[in-house]
């Protein structure tokens, strides 16, 4: 496998003058990455792929800024951060991914709120349209910078987080978990740091919130049956195929993220979260090794899933069809799913232990008062 060097990517993409040119570069640069690597090179492959995504997205934002200047709107009136959520935030995207993004900006001065909001509304539209031209379809779930919910000044975003923490509905907890996967890809990273530190700092001390997050997290199970059998799709066009995204990848991501939130670990990627959990001795070296290996196996299988084209844009498809479920792939999956079942139990145990410890601290505080 020829690894695409980050510096080479930045050099070529930084010279792109149009959004459509970025799509051409993506197609060209994805060539060396199109062949899925052997399992032992999975981490390096994802590193190269996500270097490519980051570079294209940054250049798209820069071109959108230039477009607004040409339209007479000038430069950004206050510092801002263009952020990624989901697999983009975790640097776990495969070659073809959709838009999961938002826009966070510094609180405007009194009297300038409407003008600042108008600028970023237009910038968000230009970025989203540019990303579509560059081959990134909009997020079907609406987590996108053109949605006012994910485009806010810092104060309003913090108020939104506080509201979700008060509501604690299934949907509001889901939004909090989405926000826990947040990474600045362009702009003022300090704005993102405020959000992440606030969310993680409060969540790890809130027993009710931790329990609600755990409930959401455990909703998605690995798709394995009795004796470790892989559960495949029974009906429809994907019959016989395996849902890699929701049957293997998401349960591992969610479980490890839950522990990161529980212990206040702000690392973005799943593998970095495993390292951090081991660093603070929340898990032993053996467990960390098993989790890392299982997650890399799932990433490897996920990279095998063919892309699909809809309306001129490429999409990830969650299912690996049955013709690609070779004996070797099934072996990887069975091992990863077995680890996933144990991980699920460990997450439940650790969060319950943490909430019990917090409750004891609260009781001790009441007695002291």
TrEMBL record:
UniProt-listed CDD domains: NT_GlnE_GlnD_like
Signal peptide stretch: none
InterPro entries, per database record: DUF294_put_nucleoTrafse_sb-bd, GlnD_Uridyltrans_N
One MF annotation (Gene Ontology) recorded for this entry: [protein-PII] uridylyltransferase activity
Boundaries of every Protein-PII uridylyltransferase N-terminal domain copy: 49-167
Domain DUF294: 209-350
Protein name: DUF294 nucleotidyltransferase-like domain-containing protein
Organism from which the protein derives: Paenibacillus aurantius
Lineage, broadest ranks: Bacteria, Bacillati, Bacillota, Bacilli, Bacillales
């Amino acid at each position: 496998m020829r690894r695409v060097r980050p510096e080479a990517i930045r050099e070529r993409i930084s010279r792109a003058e149009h959004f459509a040119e970025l799509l051409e570069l993506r197609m060209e640069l994805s060539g060396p990455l199109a062949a899925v690597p052997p399992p032992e090179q999975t981490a390096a492959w994802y590193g190269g792929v996500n270097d490519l995504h980051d570079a294209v997205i940054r250049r798209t934002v820069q071109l959108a800024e230039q477009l607004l200047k040409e339209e007479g709107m000038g430069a950004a009136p206050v510092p801002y951060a263009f952020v990624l959520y989901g697999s983009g935030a975790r640097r776990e995207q495969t070659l073809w991914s959709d838009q999961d993004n938002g826009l966070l900006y510094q609180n405007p001065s009194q009297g300038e709120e409407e003008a600042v909001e108008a600028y970023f509304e237009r910038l968000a539209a230009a970025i989203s349209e540019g990303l579509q031209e560059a081959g990134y379809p909009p997020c079907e779930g609406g987590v996108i910078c053109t949605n006012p919910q994910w485009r806010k000044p810092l104060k309003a975003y913090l108020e939104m987080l506080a509201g979700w923490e008060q509501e604690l509905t299934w949907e509001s907890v889901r939004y909090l978990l989405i926000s826990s996967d947040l990474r600045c890809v362009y702009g003022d990273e300090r704005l993102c740091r405020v959000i992440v530190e606030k969310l993680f700092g409060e969540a790890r001390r809130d027993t009710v919130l931790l329990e609600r997050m755990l409930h959401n997290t455990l909703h998605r199970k690995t798709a394995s049956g009795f004796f470790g059998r892989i559960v495949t799709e029974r009906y429809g066009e994907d019959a016989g195929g395996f849902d890699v995204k929701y049957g293997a990848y998401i349960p591992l991501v969610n479980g490890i993220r839950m522990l990161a939130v529980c212990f206040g670990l702000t690392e973005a990627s799943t593998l970095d979260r495993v390292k951090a959990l081991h660093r603070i001795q929340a898990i032993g070296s053996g467990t960390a090794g098993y989790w890392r290996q299982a997650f890399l196996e799932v990433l490897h299988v996920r990279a095998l899933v063919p892309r699909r084209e809809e309306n001129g844009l490429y999409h990830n498809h969650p299912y690996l069809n049955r013709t690609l479920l070779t004996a070797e792939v099934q072996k990887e999956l069975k091992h990863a799913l077995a680890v996933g079942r144990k991980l699920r139990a460990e997450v439940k145990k650790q969060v319950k232990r943490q909430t019990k410890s917090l409750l004891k601290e609260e009781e001790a505080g009441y007695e002291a008062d």
